[in-house]
Specification:
Helix content: 25-40%
Low-confidence stretches: 1-5
Radius of gyration: 23 Å
Number of helices: 16
Largest sheet: 7 strands, mixed
Distance between the termini: 72 Å
Strand order of the largest sheet: 14-17-18-13-12-19-20
CATH topology of the largest domain: Aldehyde Dehydrogenase, Chain A, domain 1
Mean pLDDT: 96
Shape: globular
CATH class of the largest domain: Alpha Beta
Number of domains: 2
Bound molecules: nicotinamide-adenine-dinucleotide
CATH architecture of the largest domain: 3-Layer(aba) Sandwich
Structural class: alpha/beta
Length: 485
């Protein structure tokens, strides 16, 4: 069952839908059953050049320059309202496009609306400073828009990430070009379609669909963009950074993770168990901040893992539109990657406590459904505990001392998020202060909803921060003005 009919969608450039050539299309499929959802343009250099030209014209236009920060904020509040008015359609579209359960898509839609509200409220509060240099000089700073900003979006949370990209770009007075992932472009296109009646100056928001090595590479290597934000894999992040470097274009990189839940014996085990489970099954484990490693005190490991496995086995698996706990993974390609990790586990004699297999669902044979999986006693340095699997697969590694817990937690190339579970406040903060990652949750995982909390990584998880006030730094540049009197 699909919520949309197969249809050809255009790129959105300069306030118009640019209809693709018939031989330049990408088919978008429903991960639940492999059926066709839509065709979108296979944009390339040509469309990116048009989008940059339109964005440049719009950014320098009188219409945009004279729109006050308050008015920009007001527009963003209206987008939030439009999203809420269309929440069912957006959630269904996200579910058929990405595969995730409908209730998770509904949360994504609400978060998208809240990004617009958050940055709407900030648009007229982007302050500079006055600096007391010396008598006779008035010195102040102004945060100015950076210009043309490119956003390259991954396939796993397309609506949320498109929303925060557009919201922060408009709040800071920039013109934006979005390149959604080729697999999941539909809600980004829908969002700009919903925004059309608001009458934003043409070219302030553009969307070019296409493959990464074509449209994505053309955007990140374009000499006339002023900032690029990339969310995706480490390998692609390196390529984006290298091509932006040719033009001295700053980048924000939000890359992957191998995030631990560090569970001490004194914690509230019921709560820890619930969140360890939730943090690995959300979006079938295809979440950059997934809690994909359980790092647990040895004395409680056996019982905790037994109970976790029992809880995992009760989860329902099936098409996202029917609201199962786990939907399918995105594609055969994604499934094969996960499967290769399962093969490695078997080859290396790692104990699979539960899961590890594909699940066939009647009527949805072409979808790739995976049982939630627990791999026990995985040595901290093993590939399975080091590399991002991007599926519902949890590794378990034990520790005996606080130092060992920290060493294991920090012992991967990544550093995105960590959960710390203990009733001992001193221990919790001591551990938090030593974790090499961008976000730490104590006795929760994901508390606060995200919009207001700076998000980004240490080490190979990237640099720069999205979300919250911190993101404003990416999209503004600072000017110092000195007046002698
Ligand atoms: P990916 O790197 O393959 O693709 C991400 C985006 O980059 C897509 O839009 C793709 O078309 C584009 N792209 C691909 N090659 C490109 C190139 N040469 N130049 C420019 N753009 C190019 O990643 P993915 O498979 O879509 O997403 C999964 C990865 O993203 C995982 O590693 C995950 O952890 C990471 N991720 C990170 C975050 C975060 O906020 N840190 C959020 C979501 C996903």
């Amino acid at each position: 069952m699909t919520a949309v009919d197969a249809q050809v969608q255009g790129c959105y450039i300069d306030g118009k839908w640019v209809v693709p050539k018939q031989d330049r299309l990408i088919e978008v499929k429903n991960p639940a059953d492999g059926s066709s959802l839509a065709y979108v343009p296979r944009g390339d250099k040509e469309e990116i050049n048009l989008a940059v030209k339109a964005a440049k014209k719009a950014f320098h236009s009188r219409e945009w320059k004279t729109l006050s920060p308050y008015q920009r904020g007001k527009l963003l509040f209206q987008v939030a309202e439009l999203i809420r008015n269309n929440k069912e359609e957006l959630a269904q579209l996200e579910t058929v496009d990405v595969g995730k359960p409908l209730n998770q898509s509904a949360v994504d839609v609400e978060i998208a609306a809240r990004y617009f509200e958050y940055y709407a409220g900030i648009a007229d509060k982007i302050f500079g400073e006055t600096i007391p240099v010396e008598p006779g000089i008035i010195d102040y700073t102004v945060r100015e828009p950076i210009g043309i900003v490119g956003h390259i979006i991954p396939w796993n949370y397309p609506l949320q990430i498109a929303a925060r990209s557009i919201a922060v770009s408009i709040a800071t007075g920039n013109a934006a070009i979005l390149k959604p992932a080729e697999d999941t472009p539909l809600t980004t296109l829908k969002l700009v379609e919903l925004m059309e009646p608001l009458g934003l100056p043409k070219g302030i928001v553009n969307v070019v669909t296409g493959y990464g090595h074509e449209a994505g590479a053309a955007l990140s290597g374009h000499p006339e963009i002023n900032h690029i934000t990339f969310t995706g894999s480490v390998e692609t992040g390196k390529r984006v950074m290298a091509s932006a470097a040719q033009n001295i274009v700053p980048v924000t990189l939000e890359l992957g993770g191998k995030s631990p839940n560090i569970v001490f014996a004194d914690c509230n085990q019921e709560q820890a168990l619930e969140w360890v489970r939730k943090s690995i099954i959300q979006n079938a484990g295809q979440t950059c901040s997934a809690g994909s490693r359980l790092v647990i005190e040895r004395s409680i490991k056996d019982q905790f893992v037994r109970e976790l496995a029992a809880a995992m086995e009760k989860l329902s698996i099936g098409p996202g539109i029917d609201n199962h706990d786990l939907g399918p993974v995105l594609s055969k390609k994604q499934f094969d990657i996960i499967q290769s990790f399962m093969d490695l586990a078997k080859k290396d004699g790692i104990r699979i406590v539960t899961g590890g297999e594909r699940k066939q669902i009647e009527g949805y044979e072409a979808g790739y459904y995976l049982q939630p999986t627990i791999l026990d006693d995985v040595p901290a340095t093993h590939t399975l505990a080091q590399e991002e699997i991007f599926g519902p697969v949890l590794t378990v590694t034990t520790f005996q001392t606080e130092e060992e817990a920290i060493e294991i937690a920090n012992g991967t190339p990544y550093g995105l998020v960590a959960g710390v579970w203990t009733e001992n406040v001193g221990l919790a903060h001591r551990v938090a202060s030593q974790l090499q990652c961008g976000q730490v949750f104590i006795n929760h995982y994901g508390a606060g909803g995200g919009m207001a909390q700076p998000f980004g990584g240490y080490k190979k998880s990237g640099f720069g921060r999205e979300k919250g006030l911190e993101a404003l730094r990416n999209y503004t540049q600072l000017k110092n003005v000195a007046l002698k009197y």
